[in-house]
Here is the input.
Amino acid sequence: MPLPTVAIIGRPNVGKSTLFNRLVGKKLALVDDQPGVTRDRREADAHLLGLDFRIIDTAGFENEDIATLPGRMRAQTQAALDEADVALFLVDARDGLTPIDEEIARWLRVADVPVILAANKAEGRLAQSSIYEAMSLGFDDPIALSAEHGEGIADLFDALRPYIERLEQEIEEEDPEDPDAILKLAVVGRPNAGKSTLINRILNQERLITGPEAGITRDSIAIDWVWTDAENKDRRVRLIDTAGMRKRAKVQEKLEKLSVADALRAVDFAEVVVLLLDATKGLEVQDLKIADKVLQEGRALVIALNKWDVAENASSLFNGVKGALDEGLAQVKGVPLLTVSGATGKGLDVLLRVAFETRAAWSRRTSTGALNRWFEKAIEANPPPAPGGKRIKPRYITQNKTRPPTFVLFGTRVDLLPESYRRYLVNSMRKEFDMGAVPVRLMLRASSNPFDHDK
Here is the structure.
């Protein structure tokens, strides 16, 4: 059974994301004194004194037209409330009640969800009068909290416990190399490449806020979903939307720096990363830098040209991008390049199928016997050089890790192998074992035996 879900509701800047981070135990949500930092709803597993539940951080509730960005943020808050088993209504004990607090209270009173009222920033005596004032909102007595300092957490536990303990918890251990395990799939790219629109189309719902304004997404948002493939098999996916990554020189605002850092953490968390390009703008240097970062982190990479439905000179565009990728990503040839449209849904099933196939190659383990049979043939076909007249003698190779595939080559003076020969071995191994374009790491271990004097 699923974990019970708690949604944090409140006006902007009352400390919702700070409380979210406190309950999750990590700084997942961006926090800043500027109101309106959180725009999409964000979910994570929370742990509170032995209670396990799903927590949703929401955008600040504002009374704006749905066509505006604040209005679309409010729609996301409504969607979070629809999913929740409990609403945690947060007010600011320093500022006292505001008309927006009272409007939220009226909204929550008619919702079919139990409400726990909490007054945040309640440290110090000055907050006491605001806590008493919050009793007028028509809920049970407010819990006095300080999300920043961790005060009042025991009282929050007592309030949440009856709801959390209603559902029986199941803990499922997954083998990370199991082909049926949940696929952690991150979507990255420059601002306005259409990442959130693409994910909304995959989910077939307006799960993420989209619009013409650049930089709407700030947090990395993870969404669990089930995709039914062409064989009618359900495949679990964790989709991760990320903030757009501009050139470092253009990233000036503190919030954007935090957003980019958050996107890079999402890459670390993911198994497969989709780099989304805007087909109306083609490939830029920043795209290659993002792709290189993904590969350096050892993640499997898929590149998708989005907005293909409005691309001009499609054939020449595709061939031009493919050629530039082969030249710009010399360390990994043949990264999958697909065409998709977040607006029409074109190519999305192919994208997901390729993502699962790429993860399988990224997770594959090759037996030592098969490796060394290939290794002997590769060495015989192209013997290593002898720098300074001293022979390099590779002895054997083994795979010590997957995800990404990592191999260790043992022998005499193998640490002197030139980079060109290492590339030869990696490329030959890719071809022999059908590894595709996933990153492959080759480590060299030269003999430390003082009696080993092979010439």
